[in-house]
Amino acid sequence: MEPDWLVWARRLQAIAQTGLTFVQDPFDRERYEQIRRLAAEIMAAHSNAETALIESLFAEQSGYATPKVDVRAAVFRDDGALLMVREATDGRWSLPGGWADVNQSARESVAREVLEEAGFEIEIRKLAAVYDRAKHPHLPLRPFHIYKLFFVCTIAGGAPRTSLETTEIGFFSEATLPPDISIGRVLPFQIANMFAHYRNPALPTDFD
């Protein structure tokens, strides 16, 4: 789903990052740094970002290159309505979620995100899907490879509360979903799949 230039640049960045982690020879280090710079130049040539900014972002990454993890919660009310939050950054609706934190399990991370963004404590029922962001039409494009974990959840406590990241909280049936979805975070077909998993908990986990 993503353009070839992004796939190639991301692969070059990952090779450079992993190489710089294990390299011993100073000449090889210089070569890996050149590969990282080339990856940044490719991304800058196809975006509005400056090469120096992208290269600085790449330089912050260390260790063996692996995908980043995004967690999303499909939180259902007793009447089957789905919790959604309006994102402060783009003004569009999404499932609550965000990056998984170091020293937290995926379960702990998604529970934290819902509490922070919407004010609810949740009970996690199942891991419904593991999607490769690159294989789906999310926009905008991202410089790093991302796995997206979707959990089906129910409300265990708390009360609706916005945050610095969210400006509105709502519950929607499948027939009344808002039209302005934050497609960088979640896609309509992914939301539809969450309704399917809620209605039929025996469905197997979706994955790419």
Structure, explained:
- The protein is about 35% helix and about 25% strand.
- The two termini are about 15 Å apart.
- The protein has 5 helices and 8 strands, in the order H-H-H-E-E-E-E-H-E-E-E-H-E.
- It has helices spanning about 5-20, 25-45, 50-60, 105-120, 190-200, and strands spanning about 70-75, 80-85, 95, 95-100, 120-130, 145-160, 165-170, 205.
- Strand 2 (about 80-85) and strand 3 form a beta hairpin.
- It has a 5-stranded mixed β-sheet, sandwiched between helices. A 3-stranded antiparallel β-sheet has the order 3-2-7, with no helix packed on it.
- The protein is elongated, with a radius of gyration of 19 Å.
- The mean pLDDT is about 95.
- Helix 2 packs across helix 3.
- It has about 210 residues and is α/β, with parallel strands linked by helices.
- It folds into 2 domains: about 5-60; about 70-205, Nucleoside Triphosphate Pyrophosphohydrolase.
List keywords for this structure.
Nucleoside Triphosphate Pyrophosphohydrolase; 2 domains; 208 residues; three-stranded antiparallel sheet; alpha/beta; five-stranded mixed sheet; 8 strands
| CATH third-level topology of the largest domain | Nucleoside Triphosphate Pyrophosphohydrolase
Note the gap between the termini.
Answer: 13 Å
Structural category is alpha/beta
Principal-axis shape equals elongated
| Portion of residues within helices | 25-40%
CATH class of the largest domain: Alpha Beta
What is the number of helical segments per DSSP (H or I, 4+ residues)? 5
Low-confidence stretches: none
Total beta strands: 8
Largest sheet: 5 strands, mixed
CATH superfamily of the largest domain: Nucleoside Triphosphate Pyrophosphohydrolase
Percent in strands: 25-35%
Radius of gyration: 19 Å
